[in-house]
Structure formats: C-alpha cells, structure tokens
# Entry
Amino acid sequence: MSHRPISLVANLVFPVIILLAGVSIAAAIAVKRIPPLLAEVDRGLLPPNFEVTLSSVGEYTLWLHLKGRLGNQLHHGSGELPPGAKVFLFDASSGREISLDKKVSAEKNMGEDKAISLGVFRSEREDKTIEIKSSGLNSEVLLSVSPTSSRQVMEIVVLIAAVIVGSLILSTLIFVQLMRRRQGGR
# Structure
C-alpha cells in the first residue's frame, strides 16, 4: 500500500499554529505585565511645590513632561529645565535633601504624555513623603514620579523574546520533520 505524501499546505498548518500561539502568548505577557510598570505614583506642577507619598521601598524616576495632563488641563513644556533652574527633593519628615542620580537618561512616550527623566532616587522606607521643590523656574513645569523598574522591564523583555524564539525554533523543527516525512524520509 503506497502512501500519498502530505501536501505542503498541510505541512505548514501545524508549525504556523505553533508560531501564532507563541506570538499570542508573548503579546498576552506584554499586555498583562508592562502597564503596571508604567504607572505613576503622582504628578504635579512646579512652582508651586508638591508632595508625593511613596508606598514602597525602591527606586523611583522623576519625569519632566514635554506634554501631559494634570486633571483636565493639557500642559506643554520645552522638555528641559531653563538655564539655572533646579529641582530638589526633600524627605518631608526630616527635611533632608534626597539625591537625584542623573546618570541614566530615559524617555517615555505614551499617547499625549511625553516625558524625559530628570533622574532616579531611592526610597528606603514605606509610606515616605517626598517634597519636590524648585528654584529658578519662571513658568510652570509638569513633573511626575514613577517606580523605576529597569530590572523588571529586562525580565519581561527576556521572557517575551524566549517565548517567541522558542516557538520559532519549535515550529521550524516540526516543519523540517514534516517535510522529511513528506519526501519519504530523506
């Protein structure tokens, strides 16, 4: 009894399903795990000063918005502080200045919110209130504070890449095996 070889389309169906499943799983991971990393603790205008209460220990990024909303009002900025202007962070309970590490420069662009980082600072205790003050500002600028999560972002990127690459390798191996079977085991 001779067997008819499986058609090329039939050989493609199963590997394509595996590849689509891998891409779908990677997209689901991205949709579920990335938005919490982009959440802000609070935002406010300088001047006047404003306070932010940090609920957990960890690193936080201070963002200067080129464009962003505060309430119903859309604010536009230049994307940089004017010459001579400075932003200061203070621990509200002790009055001590908190250092702002400006080594890392980052940008975020989410719809009508566009911002650049002014630096990263660390909270050593839960429920710490930070006062954000300025000097040398002639007009209002919109600032926000969000948790810094570069390690978590990298973990998610690696996981998504592993899922996609794994599904690509698996679908390729299955396709090759099916093609060998189609050609009679050669």
